[in-house]
Structures are given as structure tokens and as C-alpha cells.
Amino acid sequence: MTLPGGEWGAAALAAVACFGLSRAAAAAGHRVAAVDPDPQVARALDVALSPWDVTLVEVHLESPGATMPIALDRARSIAQGVDAEVVVWVSSADDGYAVWIYDSASDHASARKLDQAPPFDGPTAAGVALSVKTLLRGTVVAPPAERFGAGAGAGERPWRIGLSAGVSSRTTASSPVEARFGLQASGWARYWGAVLDLETGPGTHPASTALAGTLTDSSVRIAVSARWPVSTTVAIEPSLGGALHWEHLDGVVVSDNSSASIDRLDGAFEPRLAVDFGLAGGRVHLAPWVGASVLTRWQRFHVHDALVLELAPVTLQAALCAEVALP
What is the pTM of this model? Predict the structure, then answer.
């Protein structure tokens, strides 16, 4: 099978969009701002938080200090200024030194006393980083399974089911836009998921001088999806999958007014890119997505060896999926 450049271009553009945006999102995990950190502590923090997909941002500003509510106000301002979810700093007061974190989600600051004053040697810096990591277990920066109060196997709800509604259009001017409806089920393990989609539509009436009829397309799609958080409630979810399409053409041949009914099974390559919005504490998900379906062969339909319909195998798609997480 040989696809013209236009159809391959549309499919390639959809695949490149999935991978390009997903790579950009991979660097957009949680952000923690460290205020004028000790160099040893900064290195230890970077190592300690790397398994959590955390970006450590060093900001060289005046420390929020240890006096409330001034410290809280300053930390809040720093978090907003650098778009960080947590601010970390070391304070000095009459009663000694302490390491602090400010959590923007709860608008709360907490601290742990330090036994040694900066600058820190390597082992002490590692201990400070461990104290910070312990404090962060009470924030959304920590993975759900590692937060305070999480039991064995705790974490994000791994199973979802939902419905989708959208449109599709083949990359030929003669093919109209078709409404599409679907049922989706997915299972997730942290940043990776498996997706099953069942989709169908009312059918289209493709333009043909040889045939007047309706073409319906029903499909089942299995895909592997990745999930990269942009914030606590928004994530980018690219997926790559394969689908099996059942196409049914029912119509009348114009030349002899005879009826025609053709069924066909075709495989397809289907990349998609979704933006997931988690609502109600992650129990409800709304995810608009765009994608493409590239069938494995050119769509030529024959009746009595005569070509009655020819369609491009590439279809562009867009939909909104609403899911609920299973308990």
C-alpha cells in the first residue's frame, strides 16, 4: 500500500504532535523552589526528589524567615512568582536553625529544627534533604502512595470507565464529518496506562457518482498511554494504539439501480493526544483529545468488479471523553 503525501503528512503530524508535546510535558512535573539554598543541600535535594519527578528551582531572594505571618506571606509570594507548588528555606532565629516548607495547595508552612548551622557538610546536607522530603510527604508533591496516611497499595484510582462524543473526517473533500460515540475503559499504574475504546457512529453518505449509500464504521482500539502531570489536576496523556475497524457500506448502484452491501475488516494505527482534567478529587476526569486513524489499506469498494467508492484511509478525529474512577 502506498499513501499519497497528503495523507501520510496528516498521520505523521498527529504522531509528531503526540510525541513532541509529551516530551515537553515530561519536564513539567512538580516544582519545588529552594530559597538561596546551601550548595550541598541543593545537590542532596535534587537527588532525593528525582524519583518523584520534581524540578528543583533555586531562587536567590531574601529568606522568608521564621516569624509568622510574615514568613507565610513571603513564601506565598515566592511560590506565585516562580510557579512552584512548594517553597523550601532554612531560617535562623534566637532558638536556632530550622528547615521550612511552604505548601501552596494548603497555604500552610511547617518546619523542623536543625542541629547544625549552615554551611553544611555532605552528611548533614543529606540529613536536611531527608527532613525536607519527610515534610513533603504531607503535600501533593509526593506520589499518592508515599504521602502520609497512605496504606499498602494506596495511590491514584487505577481503573476508569467513561463515555466519549466527538467527530471524525477523512482527509478527502468528498467525505463529510461524522459524529462518533464511544465507551472507554482504562487501567493506570502511576504514569502508564492501558486503554480500551469501543466506538461507532451513525454513518456518512460519501459522495460518489457510482453509488448512493451509507458507510458506517465501528471500531475497537487497544492502546498504551503515558501520563505526565502539568499540575495537581491537569495532565498530558499521549497514547499509541492499534484498532480493528468494521466498515459496512449499504447503498444502491446508480448504473443499474441494484442494491449493494459490503462488509470489511481493516486494521489501523491510531495515535492520540489528550489533556486530562481531574475533578472531585480525581474521581471524575474530563479529557478532550485529538488524533488520527490510519487504515492499513486504501478504501476501495467494488460491486461486480466495478469500483463504486474510493476513500482515503486517513481519518482525523477529535472528541471529549468523560470518565469516572472506580473505587
Answer: 0.56
